[in-house]
Specification:
33% helix, 5-stranded parallel β-sheet, 5-stranded antiparallel β-sheet, 15 strands, alpha/beta, single chain, elongated
Length: 247
């Protein structure tokens, strides 16, 4: 999940970023990276391009380009990014519909209201639709992150094993491919040339990982300790997130 905040009050932006991180942690949704914070609309726009962010929080009253104008410029480039306005007045609530905003968050907001805003944005649905782009036989292809169970480097290409049992082949160097996947906390490097999605791991054994479909993936002796710690940490975070969601 990629989230940005445009807010000229440093204390407010830090508080919002902390609450967003708390919500993501409780729902077991990784933020890649943590929310980017900009002090102005100009700052955000200078780093923005289509697909840069899934959700953007915009303060309406900022020096320079205000939040509403920033939203209009964003919409010219990206019609799918979710927009959430944060402000101390209801004055611009109607105008927010013109840029297809998902929520209008009034200051001072509480954590429950923020959770409602993120739910309205379909944050969990967005996360499940996360993908990365890789070169394919007929041009670039998209791979859904949560459909990848594990990958292996063979014959100078990546064999990507998918949840539905299919395989896709990607012509990339292993270090470049691994760099993309390992930025997500649920992917793990368990053996040279092999990456695994911890979402599909049932348990860790003495020298291998057992996947939920019964497959066994070897663990390098040198990597065992790190793999075990990462799996246990992921399992703990996942259980805690499910408990919080149930509450």
């Amino acid at each position: 999940m990629r989230i940005a905040i445009a807010e000229d009050q440093a204390a407010d932006s830090r508080c919002l970023a902390t609450d967003i991180s708390r919500w993501a942690d409780e729902h077991n949704i990784p933020l890649v990276p943590l929310p980017d914070i900009y002090e102005s609309g100009e700052g955000l726009l200078s780093h923005f391009s289509k697909g840069s962010y899934d959700i953007i929080f915009l303060d309406i009253f900022m020096d320079g380009i205000d939040g509403m104008e920033t939203a209009r410029r964003i919409r010219k480039a990206d019609s799918e990014c979710r927009l959430v306005f944060i402000t101390s007045t209801k004055e611009y609530a109607i105008d927010s519909y013109d840029v297809d905003s998902s929520w209008y968050l009034l200051k001072p907001y509480n954590y429950q209201k923020l959770s409602q805003a993120l739910a309205r944005c379909g944050a969990e649905f967005i996360e499940q639709g996360q993908f990365f782009t890789v070169p394919g036989k007929y041009g670039d292809q998209k791979l859904l992150l949560h459909q990848v169970t594990w990958t292996e480097y063979i014959n100078r290409q990546i064999c990507v094993h998918l949840k539905n049992g299919e395989e896709q082949y990607v012509r990339m160097r292993q270090n470049e491919f691994a760099g993309m996947l390992l930025s997500y906390p649920y992917f793990c490097d368990c053996m040279k040339g092999i990456l695994v999605n911890l979402e599909f791991v049932e348990k860790i054994q003495e020298n291998c990982l057992k996947l939920k479909d019964g497959s066994l993936l070897p663990i390098s002796r040198l990597k065992y300790r790190d793999v075990r710690e990462k799996f246990l940490d992921y399992s703990y975070q996942n259980i805690r997130g499910q408990a919080a969601y149930a509450d």
